[in-house]
Design a protein that fits this description.
With 349 residues, the protein is α+β, with helices and mostly antiparallel strands. The protein has helices at 2-26, 30-41, 46-52, 62-99, 117-131, 145-148, 182-191, 232-247, 300-306, 322-330, 343-348, and strands spanning 135-136, 142-144, 174-176, 196-205, 217-227, 253-260, 263-272, 289-298, 314-320. The longest helix has 38 residues, at 62-99.
């Protein structure tokens, strides 16, 4: 009778081992493995339940059953450990895979900005003139009527003042400069009676009805050279050299007589249209020429205001509009585009 019970218990143990092994193979989380351990090997688990029947066995049969029970227990515990180790390893692998960096992937493109077209044009102008020995001279944007007009040979009531629509401040005599020319007086008064070669870049302001070719704020770059024996040839040489560097070697240029109160004689310089090579197009209004700048020999009156004796010194001056130059170079049809920050234009140029 004892023997039958022993066989029965041994069978139960064998069944337990099979069941437990099969169940362990299905348990793939730490939680499931803990539950598995409770169910099969825990204090109230199935192995314990089987061993509880040990008491019904005759004494001499117990050792064998006990030995088999221990073997089953050890085997299952080992299996659990292996399974836990394998699962931890797999988890680690998964984390490693998820967190790994694929160095072969293309990088994320950086959205790089670039300098505004006005800034780039100004820097091109600076580079060309500084290479010819001109220094960059800063002068104020808020000016007096005296500097903006009078010292440039335009006393109150002078008809040439009509060429510049002016912003006045509430302080009498204080205005926003309409051109960079007053900087000539500042430079001369600072350096008199040394020779001068400067360019004077900056913003200027006009009380304008804004349209495709007029803005109320824009840039100018003024130039001034004062010294002994400076002639109109020097003016032409400097400006033709400038045009060739700015627009490409071999540009045609022409000088037309003009009038500015602060220069005598005065000229306007044109270059053959960079877009149609002088053939005629909408940008040059079918003339084949683009107006590039105003220039002339510094009026003796202005030299004197600046502190130079006009019987000893002479000089030339010029003034250009960088936006206009960029407009021509890039075929932009509206000067307002420069400062409305339209990305379509900014990305194109
Ligand atoms: N100041 C002039 C303007 O705004 C441009 C100019 C013309 C400047 C002739 C000069 C010059 O220095 O010589 O229209």
């Amino acid at each position: 009778m004892g023997n039958v019970v022993q066989q029965d218990i041994l069978q139960q143990l064998e069944q337990l081992r099979k069941d437990a092994s099969a169940a362990l193979a299905q348990a793939d989380t730490a939680e499931a493995m803990r539950e598995w351990h409770t169910e099969y090997l825990g204090r109230k688990g199935r192995l314990t339940a089987i061993l509880r029947n040990l008491g019904s066995l005759p004494g001499e049969e117990r050792p064998l059953v006990g030995k088999v029970a221990n073997e089953v227990k050890d085997a299952l515990e080992n299996a659990l450990q292996e399974r836990q180790a394998a699962s931890a390893q797999a988890e680690l692998e998964a984390v490693r895979r998820a967190e790994s960096v694929d160095v072969t992937l293309p990088g994320r493109p950086q959205n790089l900005g670039k300098l505004h077209i006005t800034t780039r044009t100004l820097r091109e102008i600076y580079a060309i003139f500084t290479a010819m020995g001109f220094q960059i001279y800063d002068s104020p944007e808020v000016e007096t009527d005296e500097y903006n007009f009078q010292l440039l040979n335009m006393p109150p009531g002078h008809p040439a003042r009509d060429m510049w629509d002016t912003f006045y401040t509430t302080t009498p005599g204080l205005i926003l400069r309409t051109h960079t020319s007053p900087g000539q007086i500042h430079a001369m008064r600072e350096y008199a009676t040394e020779p001068i070669r400067v360019i004077l870049p900056g913003k200027v302001y006009r009380y304008e009805a804004v349209d495709a070719s007029h803005e109320s704020m824009f840039y100018q770059v003024e130039g001034l050279a004062v010294g002994k024996h400076i002639t109109f040839c020097d003016l032409k040489g400097v400006l033709i050299n400038f045009a060739n560097q700015m627009y490409g070697e071999g540009r045609k240029s022409r000088f037309r007589k003009s009038y500015f109160p602060f220069t005598e004689p005065s000229v306007e310089m044109d270059i053959d249209c960079v877009l149609c090579n002088g053939q005629g197009c909408p940008v040059c209004k079918y003339t084949g020429w683009l107006e590039m700048l105003g220039a002339g020999m510094v009026n003796p009156v202005v030299l004197e205001y600046g502190g130079y004796d006009p019987t000893e010194f002479s000089g030339f001056a010029f003034g250009m509009g960088p936006e206009r130059m960029a407009l021509q170079k890039y075929g932009i049809d509206d000067i307002r585009n420069f400062y409305t920050n339209d990305m379509r234009l900014l990305e194109r140029v």
